[in-house]
Amino acid sequence: MTVLLLSCLVFLLAGLIQGLTGFGGGLVAIPLLCLLMDVKLAVPLSILSGLAITTTMAFELRRLMDWRKILPMLVGSLPGVFAGTFLLKLADPAVINRMLGVLLIAISAVNLTIRPRPLNPHVAWGYIAGFFSGAITASVGAGGPPVIIYTTLTDWKKDEIKATLTGFFVLNGYITAVVHACSGMITRSTLTAFAASLAFVLAGTYAGSAISGRINRRTYLRVVYALLMALGIVMLAR
Q: For the chain, which residues make up each domain, given as ranges?
C-alpha cells in the first residue's frame, strides 16, 4: 500500500511537469519509480501514465497541432520504438544513459547561458530526431530528448512547440504501448498500478497546463532546458 501511494504522488508530480512543458513526465517518474519497483515494471507503467497525460493535453491543444510538423518525427520514431524495445529486453541501457546524459547537459548549458538564434533545422532532422526519440522512450522511458531539442531550435511559438511535442508523444506513446504489450512488458500488475494512479496523473496534468498558460516563450524555453539538464544529470546518476 505504501508503494502504491508513493507511486501515485510520483505521477501527480510527473503530470504537473509534463502539463507545464509538454514533456518531462518520464524525467520525474522513472528515477523515482525505480526506487520503489523494478525498472521493467517502472518503464511500462510510466509509458501508460504518459499516455493518459498526453491524451489529455492533445485534446486541449488539438487546434494548435500541425501534422506537417508532427509526421516526420512520428514516421522516424517507428523503427526506433522496435529498436528501443529490443534494447530494453536484452541489453543494459547504462551506456546509453550516460552518453545521452552528457549530451543533454552540454546542450542545455549552452542554451541556458547564451541566446542562440533559431536554426530552423531541415525537416530531415525531424525524421532523425524521431528515430532516436522512439528508441530512447521505448528503452529507458526518458521522454524523447531529441525531438524536444529539434522543436526548440525552430522559431515556432511556445504553444506550437508544446502542441507539436504533445502530438508526437501521444501517437508515439500508443505505438510504444502496443509494442510493449505484444512483447509481454505490460502485465496485470502494470495495469493495476496504472488504474490506481490515473486520478493523480490527470490532476497534475491540469495543474501544469494552467501554469503554462501564464508564462512567455523565453521563460518556457529556459524551463525546458533546465529540465533537460536535470534529465542529463539523472541519466548520469542512474
A: 2-237
